[in-house]
Design a protein that fits this description.
The protein has 186 residues and is of the alpha/beta class. The protein has one domain: Dihydrofolate Reductase, subunit A, CATH 3.40.430.10. Strands 4-3-2-5-1-6-8-7 form an eight-stranded mixed β-sheet, sandwiched between helices. Strand 7 and strand 8 form a beta hairpin. The protein is globular. It starts with a strand and ends with a strand.
Length: 186
């Protein structure tokens, strides 16, 4: 069975975005170690899950990266990897390798996890990730803790959730990547 892996940027005070969805607090100058961890998570997956609110910006950003950009090789992975957008309101989303899933979240994610292939990665947004966490659908949480506090904003945890730390790495950029699994999963 495939595993669902979360990759998320977070502030030290537990926010994944500012109150209006701002991401201006994120560390932009990632070092080679942090980039290698992102690539490792990406390479272990062959499907990307996205919530409706994050989809437009995600697709436009990665599809617009030009060949002269240092992000181009990674951008091609993001564009070429199949993406499943969860939405109750959209029927179609513009972009390459994108399909919309409008059915029951738990059933749809479990169906994807039951298919053959590599693991599945989810990047967000906050409301979508919260729903996945609330339904115990995420098997591995990779939290990229940025060295900044913003005081208020959007969170992905809405209730108590017991987690087990499986790995932690500090990088030169000041980011610490903590990898957790739900404490109930072995």
């Amino acid at each position: 069975m495939r595993r669902l892996k979360l990759q998320v940027q977070m502030t030290v005070d537990g926010f994944v975005a500012g109150p209006e969805g701002q991401l201006d607090w994120m560390t932009r100058n990632l070092d080679e170690g942090a980039i290698a961890r992102i690539v490792e998570i990406t390479d272990s997956s062959d499907t990307i899950l996205l919530g409706r609110k994050m989809t437009d910006g995600f697709i436009k950003y990665w599809e617009a990266v030009q060949p002269e950009s240092p992000e181009y090789v990674f951008a091609r992975r993001m564009v070429d990897t199949p993406k499943v957008v969860f939405s109750k309101t959209l029927k179609r989303v513009e972009g390459k390798n994108v399909r919309v899933e409008g059915g029951d979240l738990v059933q749809a994610v479990n169906r994807l996890k039951g298919q053959s292939g590599k693991d599945i990665v989810v990047y967000g947004g906050a409301t979508f990730v919260s729903a996945l966490i609330d339904h115990d659908l995420i098997d591995e949480l990779n939290i990229f803790v940025n060295p900044v506090a913003i005081g208020r904003g959007m969170r992905i945890f809405t209730d108590r959730k017991a987690l087990r730390l499986t790995h932690s790495n500090e990088y030169a950029s000041g980011i610490i990547v903590n990898t957790y699994e739900p404490a109930t999963k072995k």
